Amino acid sequence: MRILVTGAAGFVGRHLIPALIASGHHVRAALRDGAPPANVEEFRHGDLAGEVDWDRAVANVDAVVHLAGLAHATDALADERYDRINRDATAKLAQSATRAGLQRFVFVSSIRAQTGPVADHVLNESDVARPTDAYGRSKLAAEGLVLASGVPAVVLRPVLVYGRGVKGNMATLLRLAKLPVPLPLRGLHNRRSLLSVQNLASAIEHALSAQACIGQTYVVADPVAVTIPEIIAALRAGLHRPSRLVRFPAALLRAMVRIALGAHAWDRVAGQLVVEPRKLIEHGWRPNADTRRALQELVT
After folding, report:
1. Domains along the chain?
2. The whole model's pTM is what?
């Protein structure tokens, strides 16, 4: 299969493209900046908020994996940029894919299209989507436009993705785990669903080939959720160190986290977000990477 991968130079793209090539696919890498993995055809484009010749991008390919988007914007025009990049550019790409008669369009959306940073129950696809910020709303709107475009489409909503080269919240936990000191995190019992980039790549490959997936929306996560202490313990096991976690008064820990990481960081550390990927598994996906082992491999 000839596959256009957008966001090819990003974290997921750098892991996905070698996996697709290893499976025998030919990849056309769409990117604005940076360098894609080796052995791919390149399609260079400008800002996704502007005009992109998506008809040329999808010419002579069989499928699209759409990874590109805007995840973090804080300026006064953030809401507008989310809509132009995450919603409008995605819709235009889906329209081009429809005109070209592509066999499959896999849109990698986000769990934030369905929920905020925490949830009081285990989430699955039957829950009504209630995004809590402009990013999530732009992703949800894009999902609807893709599914309505006429191209055979699959929507994936991954949770926090981790793997070598990860940034953001997981990179922060990795830096904490590398500190040669005890960490006051033992009292955190909230569970968070994570997704190894290997499991995400396999979910994308499954979505590209399985007929049962067409027209479906799936939450995607490793099968077993973990606590923050379990994440730190796994990372330190990869470093061949004991976990060295101690209890700390919750109020004081909350204040420290907010000072160190920002006002909203406590929800990301102490809030619960568990996702059940049963539907995708029932439709044939086989997540092979074990969470604790994959976390250990981040530092080995």
Report:
1. 2-159+197-220 (3.40.50.720)
2. 0.93
